[in-house]
Structures are given as C-alpha cells and as structure tokens.
Automatic annotation (TrEMBL):
This protein's UniProt keywords: Amino-acid biosynthesis, Arginine biosynthesis, Cytoplasm, NADP, Oxidoreductase
Enzyme class, first EC level, given as a word: oxidoreductase
Catalytic-site annotation from UniProt: 117
Family the entry assigns: Belongs to the NAGSA dehydrogenase family. Type 2 subfamily.
Signal peptide region: none
Gene source species: Paraburkholderia solisilvae
Entry protein name: N-acetyl-gamma-glutamyl-phosphate reductase
Amino acid sequence: MSSPVVFIDGDQGTTGLQIHERLRDRTDLQLVTLAAAERKDPRRRAEAINACDIAILCLPDAAAREAVGAIVNPAVRVIDASSAHRTQPDWTYGFPEMTPGQAERIANARRVTNPGCYPTGAIGLLRPLMQAGLIPGDYPISVHAVSGYSGRGRAGVEEHEGQGAVNAPLFQVYGLELAHKHTPEIQQHAGLAQRPIFVPAYGAFRQGIVLTVPLALRLLAPGVDGATLHACLARHYAESAHVRVSPLHESRASTHLDPQALNGTNDMRLSVFPNMEHGHVLLSAVFDNLGKGASGAAVQNLNLMLTQQ
C-alpha cells in the first residue's frame, strides 16, 4: 500500500513553512508542494489538490475557499489553516482536546478547519468551564492576548526582521474597533451566549502567545472559586498529551508569564491565578502561535486523519 499523499497549498507563508519543516523528513507520507512558477496557476493547483489524499491549505481566506471549490475528487480530505471555514457547521473544528470525542471526529472528518491561534487559548480555557456550568453563558467575557509578530504573517516578519527592523514597534495593541475576525470563532466554540470583548496585541518577539481572561467570582455560579475552576480544567485535560494545567501551587509561585516558554512545541499550558481577597481570578494560556496555534495543530490533526486514511 502506497503512502498517503499530502499536498501543502501555500507553503511559503509562516504557517506553511513550519508545517513543511515538521513534515519534510516523514517517511510515512508523500509530501507534495508546487514549484514557484506553478503556485498561482489555477489549473496546476487544481490538479495537485485533486491528486492528493489530504490537502493542507495555508492560504488567505478567499484563496482557501477557491481551493476547496476546485475539489472534484470526493476522496480528497482537507485541513484548512485559514479562517474561511471556522464557524461553518459542515466543517469539523480541529481542536482535538476541546471536548470528549473531538479527536475521533477529526480523525474521521473529510473537512477540518484548523483553529485560529488566539481562539485556541481562549476556547481551551473557557469551553470546559462553560460546559460545566461554572461560568454563566451570558458572562461578559473579555480576552486579552499578546502574540509574537509572526502572527501577522510575512508582513510582520518583514517589519521586524527586514531592512527597516530598527524602526519596528516594540509593542502594539490593535483590533481597537473590537471586530477582530477571531471573535465569532471564540464565541461559537467556547459556547458563549454573548460576543466577548477581544483585545489582541503584538510584541517584538517572533513567536509565542500569552492570553488571559479575567473573571469576577461574584458573577459566577454560587460557590465557584479559583480551586473549582482549576479542578474542572485539570479534569478535562488530565489525559491530554499537549495541554497541561499548571498545579495551583505553581501558579501561586509564579510572578510572570513568558509568551515564548513553549516555542517550538505543540503544547499549551493553562493556569489559574486566584485572588480570593478581592474575588478575582485570572485564567491564562501560554503556547506557540506557530505551534499549537497553527502549524503544530495542523500536523496534530493530520496525524489523527492519517489513522483513518
């Protein structure tokens, strides 16, 4: 039996390059990419996607929709790393640890939409707590996140590593119109009844994310405290290979969060920081925006799908 053919469409961007890096030495699959002269040839791209077993799309949203529309071979399976299909009901959301059975659903899916980097952290923190009823569905959730500049794609890398890098900003908050494209994804897959306030930022480091969600205990279910929230997350991810919940004693000893702590991995670390005196709790997620937030997640989903190929 021949090895499955995996086609990466768009392997020159930050996500695609890292996916290619993670897969290039694999002997259990045949990796296909297009030469530079063929990348913008619709006919050649259509031929490549219809000849593969699994296509990984690392494209802008419009191009991803176009690529999916070009598929006529019903056997082709897709992992879309763009945001084009993340809230579509006929696509399987590619966050294996999100709910029990999600990894199996991904393994058997024909169409998988990779989560966004920021939503991975927000949903990872909120979905288990919402499902357990510890946070009311209409809680006024706010999410703040700081990503490495690679989160902007090639433009961000060029700004910080190109000729004008000396003038690159050290820190910038953006999305001030409160209409970031990841917000509907967070709301839908975290199970929120209301749209959250999401405020993203970029720092002057290449990759890594720190994402935080503050909570006021007076607005939660009666009797819920930091230990309750922590226990719920710890139970949910107890068997997870890639999501770890820091013990409360580690959180109490922590004085800062390093967004680069898990760079180069497909891991995510969740923490709960309670302040019972003031009735506040801070939830946090640390992960690599190009690892668990993009390329690593795509490879994790690919590995699940290959078990059913």
